[in-house]
Design brief:
The chain is α/β, with parallel strands linked by helices. It contains seven helices and seven strands.
């Protein structure tokens, strides 16, 4: 019998990445209060949130649980999903032409094979200079409040926002660090 693989996230970008791997999985988003999980160490905070998501789903479902959480930091500001278009505009202006850090917490639970792994993938990135009119047009025509830091380079136009990158590419583009995921799947004997 094939082990059920569960993506504990409703993220369209994470689902796209899982689809690209060509493995069978189901989506069961975790239902946790992410705001209640705090840590001054942002790397640890991202990992704790990803772990809380995985554990919440593992309490109710059997199988391999994969979860992640993503947010950015720029100029000592933590950039999660913006609550409004004005906040999204401010986030994009803040990030333009500056080095920012994306934290992608990752957790993989496979109780049947005694695999319990979590970590945070770090990505340093710089957005190119964005004009006010480009930002206004972008936030008017895209679901910016769905994305951490108000953009998602999983989509071609937004990939063009990126001027420089160092670190996890898929952590940045899809909120799912494949370089951490694939070794875990291999340990679980899941063919990718």
């Amino acid at each position: 019998m094939e082990t059920k693989i569960i993506l504990a996230s409703g993220s369209k970008q994470r689902k796209l990445m899982m689809d690209a791997l060509g493995i069978s999985f189901v989506v069961i988003p975790a239902d946790i209060n992410e705001k209640a999980i705090r840590d001054v160490n942002l790397e640890l905070r991202a990992e704790k949130i990803a772990r809380a998501k995985a554990e919440e789903v593992a309490d109710k479902h059997q199988g391999i649980i994969i979860s992640a959480d993503t947010f950015s930091a720029c100029d000592k500001n933590v950039l999660e999903k913006p609550k409004s278009l004005d906040e999204a505009r401010d986030m994009l202006k803040l990030q333009a032409n500056k080095t920012c850090i994306l934290y992608t917490g990752f957790c993989y639970l496979d109780k049947a094979n005694q695999i319990d792994y979590s970590a945070t993938a770090i990505t340093k990135y710089v957005l190119r200079k964005l004009s006010n009119s480009e930002i206004d047009n972008f936030i008017k025509n895209n679901p910016v409040t769905d994305w951490s830091a108000a953009f998602s380079p999983a989509y071609p136009y937004q990939m063009g926002f990126i001027k420089e990158i160092e670190g996890s590419l898929t952590g940045l583009t899809h909120g799912l660090p494949v370089e951490l995921l694939i070794p875990c799947l291999e340990k679980s004997r899941v063919k990718v």
